[in-house]
Amino acid sequence: MSTDAARFLPSICRQILSAYSVTFSSEFYQSSDITNSNASSLTADKICNLAVLDRLCLTTACRIYRFSMKISIHPLTADPTAAWHELSQHQKVVKITAKVPTTEAPSDKLRVVCMSDTHSLTPYIKFDIPMGDVFIHAGDFTKCGSLQEVIEFNNWIGNLPHKHKIIIAGNHELSFDPTFTNPFSVHTSGDHQKHTGTSILDNIPTLGMSKDALAEAIKTTNIKDYLTNCTYLEDSEITVHGIKIYGTPWQPEFVKWAFNVPRGEACLSKMGKIPSDTDILVTHTPPVGHGDLCCTGVRAGCVELLSTVQNRVKPKYHVFGHIHEGYGISSDGKIIYINASTCDLNYLPNNPPIVFDITLPSGIQKS
């Protein structure tokens, strides 16, 4: 633990204890390890040894400290391929092959089923959707976010048996982004040559839909209200049996589509909203280095998202989509990264859902 961290924790621990209506005299602090004189040598082990500071207090203190950490802009953030070339020298990426479980999840685990990028093609899915406690869709559930597409998706997800159904928007949900007002700004084929990090076919967001149809699609201002069969997250979270799930649709600027922000400071500002106690993070964009390699050989992931995930948030699982050819699972040794894109590079819904079990917090079981 750094000196700065050691000095920070005592103050935070006192705040937490105060929140739990626990008070101590000045003699307590003078007689304990929590003093100004030796704060710099304070370690997590010493804090744990203090009977009054239980595991919950320490964990919360560390998470609050992580949330206060400042994530720096990488100097190569505008070129994710070059950035990853540098970052990968000190990164571990392990590919994981996961099989769909054949038995029910134990009572102390939450089974999560993940999909993404179905692009209004759910009627053509030929595989069964595995059973689970939670169903997550990481965005691009439509071609352009038209009302009809949203209604059809809502009907489809409503027929799934999962108790908790959680979705976020992607760059294709044009009508979900109130800042997106000009359908004629959406680029089509050929623009991949001007962009550092895309899938070629991902430059055709509407699969042939006219821009007049796009203009009509974004007129519905209350489009999110039609998602009655699921929980829609947009820079927000939901807690399921003690597991905190946070969802955000923002991604690095991508030829003027929905939920686009410039790489660097703007992206970091959006990622800075992610709570540090998130267990499952759902984004539409991948982080650089995981599930973001395009068929062109370039990287499309967000550099600041990777920095935020690895250095501050540290979720157990990070679920995303966006780059169809990046489908699969990887790990850096601590975090599991899941690109759950259902559609492949040819916009065929061939990739099956990815399933994982996450252990519930101590003392919590599914009812």
From TrEMBL:
Classification via Pfam families: Metallophos (PF00149)
Record protein name field: LOW QUALITY PROTEIN: metallophosphoesterase MPPED2
InterPro entries assigned to the protein according to its UniProt record, in alphabetical order: Calcineurin-like_PHP, Metallo-depent_PP-like, UPF0046_metallophosphoest
Calcineurin-like phosphoesterase domain mapped to chain residues: 110-325
GO MF entries: hydrolase activity
SUPFAM superfamilies: Metallo-dependent phosphatases
Origin: domain of life: Eukaryota
Gene that this polypeptide is encoded by: LOC105430183
Family indicated by similarity: Belongs to the UPF0046 family.
Organism lineage: Eukaryota, Metazoa, Ecdysozoa, Arthropoda, Hexapoda
